Amino acid sequence: MNYSSRFFLYAPLGLFIAIALGVAIQWWAAASSLSARLAAMNGREIAPRITMHFASRTIAGFPFNLDTEFRGLLLRIDTPHGPTEWRSEEFAMHALTYGRNETIFEAAGKQELRWTKDDGATRALVFAVGSLHASAIEDRDGVTRFDLDLVGFGSRALTAQRMQLHTRRIHDRWDLLVEADDVHFSEADRPDLGDQIDAARLTGTIDKAEAFDALRAGSETWFGAAERWRRAGGVFQVDSCSLLWSGLSISGNGRLALDKAHRPQGVLGFEIAGFPRFLQRAVKEHLPRGPDTGLAGALLDRRADASGHANAVLGLGNGIVMLGGEPADKLAPLY
Known about the structure:
- This protein is 21% helix and 52% strand.
- The protein contains five helices and 17 strands.
- It has a 17-stranded antiparallel β-sheet that branches.
- A hairpin with a 2-residue loop joins β15 (310-317) and β16 (320-323).
């Protein structure tokens, strides 16, 4: 075998070994860097007013992924009303060593959410999920897209077959999609409109996207960004909203903003079908009607046409929800 023959035999092998060695070194360096960052973050703020704790972590995924599994994860957000905490028995995040800057999140086991209401009272929700997947895509300025898909939600308060949240930045706005399917409320937490939502869907756009730039870069609190958006005259355009709720078919659209007290304000117009069935149930269950009895009570004063359809205008302002000019409920500040 001459020299040129040996070269063409061993050169590809040498190139393969060099590439494999380079990939291994790159993964080891990325994993070591991630491990050091996580150790430094544990028990400390990872963003303004957001603290992370975890009992243990492991990093795997060689050679192309960085798969991090957490045990006993706690995320705490300090808000103007008080702390909000999420605990997860098992939590994982996955990223590519090469490729676009996307992180995938998964949660399993027992989940617990605790939050503080505007009156200072603490509430808790313990739940389990069949699967919880989320993903965040970043550009050089921060998060530009976030998706959440939750299947098989179960708790004492309610169950749901599926819930989704999708948002992405496009030029000077954020597009938003929220969906929920087959939601059942417990008897203790049952709203007056009924215990089952067959389907819910909301689509819309949030303008003044630049108000959230510091938030998506991880250098500002969510309520600081919300206040910046409010002062800039931000508007949430509800392009479509639809509900199939205990026989009622509700669809509408409108515009929402925040007032100086950080409460929602605006107008939503709705078309409602299935009104006769709702009236029959209201009589059977002796639902209260009239002012300040909630949305169900205010709906009872609506008039339906011969086909069972009715129109309603929902007005939000000064901390009050008005349905057709009749006060139905009160609104608390968001922050």
